[in-house]
Amino acid sequence: MITLVMTMGAGRSFPATPPESEIVLPVTINEVPAGEASVIISGDDVYVPIATLELGRVTGLSWERILMVARLRNVERSIDGTPALSLRSLAPWTTFRLDEETLTLAITIDPALIAGSAIAIRDPRPPDIVYSHDTSTFLNYAVSSQGLSDLSAFAEIGSSIRGNLLYTALSSSPGRGLTRGLTHYTIDQRQHLRRLVFGDATVFGDELGGSGIIGGATVARNFDLDPYFIRFPSMSLRGM
Predict the structure, then answer these.
(1) 35, burial (CB in 10 Å: exposed 0-12, middle 13-18, buried 19+)
(2) If residue 62 lies in a helix (H) or strand (E), which one and from where to where?
(3) How far is the C-alpha of 178 from the C-alpha of 170, rounded, in Å?
(4) Cα–Cα distance measured from residue 184 to residue 50, given in angstroms and rounded to the nearest whole number
(5) 26 preceded by cis ω (within 30°)?
(6) Which residue of 7, 81, 113, 214 is most buried, as measured by CB atoms within 10 A?
(7) Please, is 77 exposed, middle or buried when counting C-beta atoms within 10 Å of its C-beta (0-12, 13-18, 19+)?
(8) 137 touches 159 (CB < 8 A)
(9) What whole-number distance in Å separates Cα of residue 54 and Cα of residue 32?
(10) CA atoms within 13 A on the CB side of 138
(11) pLDDT for 41-94, tens place per residue?
(12) What does the longest C-alpha to C-alpha distance in the chain come to?
């Protein structure tokens, strides 16, 4: 370490301000904290690592040209093996303020050099999502009894045929015997949010209407076929 000493008066000496020093300072870029960085203070200029400047999301062809010109003008230094640039050489795209009292470095970068921000107002659909159409069969049943003469049972069986459902249900009770439930063949057209039902179907009216069970062919819109389809606005914003 080299200390420069200047003499003033008889027998009195004072340390002179070093022309260049390396120091660790908290850095903010466009008023956003960017952590601490080792910088070089050289007179009225400050050398900052390029990696620290890029925390401000500078990007694009203009930024690449600035880096190329800075290297041609030989305003690039090395801080602990990391390339650093002179902030004054980046004017007018960059301004800075070094607060000697709080020992902080505030850097302001022209927004033209900062990458744009994309805000998705809907949940992103998972990449490469696969909807299985494997053939399969399921059987569910339930039996309840309070005695041998009071036996009730319910069963449902379904088969998935290339993604389409063939379904039927059966129930049995002491008073009614064996009763067939809903039986239908359902075809889902997920791309069009449309469901086709051949056989028994439950239909619903509007908010003031009721529901009913009909037989035949039914075509209806079904938004549940696409779990990532947003039917109503759902964006919210929170902050302090």
Answers:
(1) exposed
(2) helix 61-72
(3) 7
(4) 66
(5) no
(6) 113
(7) middle
(8) yes
(9) 13
(10) 10
(11) 988 889 999 888 888 888 777 888 888 887 777 777 888 888 888 888 888 888
(12) 121
